[in-house]
Every structure is written in C-alpha cells, then in structure tokens.
Amino acid sequence: MLDDDLIHVVDDDDAMRESLAFLLGSSGFSVRLYDGAPVFLQKMAGLPSGCILTDIRMPEIDGMELLRRVRASGRNLPVVLMTGHGDVPLAVEAMKLGASDFIEKPFDDEVLLGALRTALARSRGEQRAGDTLAEFTRRLATLSQRERQVFDRLVAGDANKVIARILDISPRTVEVYRANVMTKMQASSVSELVRLAVHAGVA
Predict the structure, then answer these.
(1) How far is it, in rounded angstroms, from Cα 198 to Cα 144?
(2) How far is it, in rounded angstroms, from Cα 185 to Cα 142?
(3) pLDDT tens figures, 64-84
(4) DSSP per-residue string spanning 34-56
(5) Dihedral angle at the C-alpha atoms of 24, 28, 30, 33, nearest 10 degrees?
(6) The whole model's pTM is what?
(7) Which of 44, 56, 172, 176 has its CA 20 to 30 A from that of 165?
(8) Does the keyword section mention Transcription regulation (predicted)?
C-alpha cells in the first residue's frame, strides 16, 4: 500500500474514529487515527503523505483551524471535512481555503469513500481539472436566470426555506429549481456542486 493511499482520521469522537477505521480499512485504505487536531499537528511534520479526514466541529482546534494550519505548513495534504447540516456555510468557507471536499452527516459509506479517492487522485495530479472546470462552466451557462439564482444560494450553503424567502418563491418551487440545477450541472450532491463552483471561482 502506498503512502498516498493513507487516510489520517482526525476526530475527537472515539466511536466515530473506530467506525471509520473499520470502514476505511475494509475498503483497502491504510489508516492512522488521531483523537484531535493538536495530536495530529504535533506529529504532522514527520508523517507520510495521504489524505486528512476530519470533523469540522472539535474542541480546542476545530477542522477549519486544522485546515488553515495544514495549508500554512506547506504540506500538500488534501483535507476532507465531515460536517453536520448546519455547518454547510462553514464547509463552503473551508472549500475556499483549499479543502478537497466536505461530507454531510449522516453520510453514505460510498459517498465518503468516493470523496477520499477523488481527493487522493486529485492530489496526485490524476484528475484533469482544467477539462472538468471547462465543462462545469459550459453547464453553468445553460441555467436559466432563476436556476442561476438558486444555484448561487445553494453554493452559499442556504437551505431551501432560506432560498425561498430570499427569492420570494415557495419552498416547493425551490425544490423544483434545485432539482433542475443538479440535473443540468450533473452534480450528485450539493458538496460536489460546491466543490466545482469554488474551483471555478463562482462561489
């Protein structure tokens, strides 16, 4: 197993760490566990490469600050954040700071595994980012004015009810536009939509 297939799990929740260790280990990843950001940061300089998987909400040093310190250190380690629904705006900010992706809890195992594989592949330069962003921009141009408004609110982390209030339309209408946006942009999740929007400079 290459160091590049290593996942550094940083989470203060013992049960979550053990659950992730089992899932990742049984899926072919090498795993190292840390019970908080301070422990990880203390060891970071001597650690092999890989991907960091961390919760956004932790005591002492949260996921956002961990991301900032990893970026400031010069270590080119991709970071995937786990987040509760209410933390989506924070996760969007994290993407702008350089996070690879964020996964909303409760998450499907395959969604998490896919995000980690993508983050690792991208860090190894195996993703054709330029082609992907060009295609994203082309799809963005196909959105109607109202769909673009809903898109902008989605990538800002707003919930359907908030979008409905801002745009003065019903939540049900927002759901219709949201579905149209996801279909036209060919995004399987809001996190994927946000990641592409951030990389394209439209979020």
Answers:
(1) 20
(2) 9
(3) 999 999 989 888 889 999 987
(4) ESSHHHHHHHGGG--S-EEEEES
(5) 10
(6) 0.67
(7) 56
(8) yes
